[in-house]
Amino acid sequence: MNELELKYGCNPNQKPSKIFMQDGKELPIKVLSGRPGYINFLDAFNGWQLVKELKEATGLPAATSFKHVSPAGAAVGLPLDPVLSKIYWVEDMENLSPLACAYARARGADRMSAFGDFIALSDICDVDTANIIKREVSDGVIAPGFEPEALEILKAKKNGNYNVIEIDAGYKPEPIEKKQVYGIVFEQGRNELKIDEALLKDVVTENQDISDSGKMDLIISLITLKYTQSNSVCYVKGGQAIGIGAGQQSRVHCTRLAGNKADNWYLRQAPQVLELQFVDGIRRADRDNAIDIYIGEEYMDVLANGRWESIFKIKPPIFSCEEKRAWLNQLSGVALGSDAFFPFGDNIDRAYKSGVQFVAQPGGSVRDDQVIETCNKYGMAMAFTQIRLFHH
Q1: H-helix or E-strand containing 104?
Q2: Tens-place pLDDT, residues 52-80
Q3: CB of 34 closer than 8 Å to CB of 215
Q4: Does residue 66 contact residue 118 with C-beta atoms inside 8 Å?
Q5: Based on the domain organization, do 40 and 106 belong to the same domain?
Q6: How far apart are the C-alpha atoms of 378 and 165, rounded to whole Å?
Q7: Which residue of the set 13, 95, 159, 392 is catalytic?
Q8: Which residues of the chain have pLDDT under 70?
Q9: CA 43, CA 355: separation in Å to the nearest integer?
Q10: What confidence score (pLDDT) does residue 74 get?
Q11: Are residues 216 and 363 in the same domain?
Q12: What's 347's domain CATH number?
């Protein structure tokens, strides 16, 4: 198959629409179920590249949760502790495979953004992973293959309309890529930059110590940024992105946005949040939204009389700003990557509030000294990678 006709493009009025190979070759994918659309394929192909590179860099199965051509989450397949299993809603699933752990992490870190995601998996989709996908609101999945039982589970989703795409893991695109904007053709060399520990050798801070786990997390952040719409920054801890700020015009806004998501991830692990008692039959999305509101500034939207009764069995106490700050002060060992240089130290000030200890960024700002000085103030270790990772 050389081309595949799509229902429409980005919007229903944008017709005709298709994907095809200009060189006459076969498309490197098979649609096993559903009818993926234009944006589905954009998410699928970007997500596949991300997880493929994560697997190559770490040796671990990888998964990502994509929304509107940026990752909402990305992770490698490290085991889940009981707290993470609970906040990712998989505590009832025992002995999950590494790939399933990777997707639970990728989906769970920012559940609000991941709602209705497109999934990419680095490895053949197994039954454990399919069973997690089965109960989440999602548009589709791309992987290099599917176990027969896993495929049947996925094909039954959305009354048989769930999008399942198999990609040829050996496919290698041409070194030059093209796209059109306003009828004008853009051409550039593909971004084939290999991201590994060699990029972290130039540590410019007084603290020179980046742990092995910190290096892995920085590599995960940089690979994630390679496929995130710019400007972008990514907070990572324990092998998973915990906060991604994408597509902001100001870098400090990226840092704040992603930092708020990282804070949200950690606040969900606080004892008073884990102990919330929800009414029977509450939907998963409603439960997630209620938690996000409860730990946010608009908490009275779920605690007001006449409102909380439809969400909680018992009215929870207010999670005060002081209590939240005390809990967040325990977060540490977080890695932060940036797709371009930090122009001011205020980015580091914000990162510190979310437990950042390790930083990787290109360097090259006229205020590099100010940024380094701010890192030194907090005892952070920062590496200059000398490479930019803009993606559009």
Answers
A1: helix 98-108
A2: 999 999 999 999 999 999 999 999 999 99
A3: no
A4: yes
A5: yes
A6: 46
A7: 392
A8: none
A9: 30
A10: 98
A11: yes
A12: 3.40.140.20
CB atoms within 10 A of CB 176: 9
Q: Is residue 392 part of a domain?
A: no
The answer to whether residue 184 sits within a structural domain is yes
Both 230 and 298 in one domain: the answer is no
Q: Which of 68, 86, 134, 391 is catalytic?
A: 68
DSSP state of 159: G
DSSP structural state of residue 155: H
Choosing from 52, 55, 67, 261, the catalytic residue is: 67
Which structural domain range is residue 303 located in? 271-318
Asked, for residue 15, whether it belongs to a domain, the answer is: yes
The answer to whether residue 162 is domain-embedded is yes
Tokens of 225: 């940024």
**Burial code of 126-148, b = ≥16 C-beta within 10 A, e = fewer?**
bbbbbbbbeebebbbbbbbbbee
Q: What is the pLDDT of residue 11?
A: 94
- 338, 360 contact by CB (below 8 A): yes
Specify whether 391 is catalytic: no
Rounded distance between C-alpha atoms, residue 217 and residue 94, angstroms? 26
392 is catalytic: yes
As beta bridge partners, residue 244 has: 234
Is 67 known to be catalytic?
A: yes
From 231, 237, 261, 347, the catalytic residue: 231
Q: Identify the three-state secondary structure at position 2.
A: coil
Give the containing element (helix H, strand E) for 292: helix 284-294
The 3-class secondary structure across 178-215, one letter per residue, is EEEECCEEEEEECCCCCCCHHHHCCECCCCCCCCHHHH
Residue 23: the pLDDT is 80
| Preceding omega of 264 cis (within 30 degrees of 0) | no
With a CB cutoff of 8 Å and minimum separation 6, the contacts of 119 are: 47, 63, 64, 65, 66, 103, 106, 107, 133, 138, 140, 141, 142
Exposed / middle / buried, residue 258 (Cβ in 10 Å: 0-12, 13-18, 19+): buried
Q: Are 345 and 366 in contact (CB under 8 A)?
A: no
- pLDDT for the residue numbered 24: 82
- How far apart are alpha carbons 213 and 191 in whole angstroms? 26
Residue 191 appears among annotated catalytic residues:
no
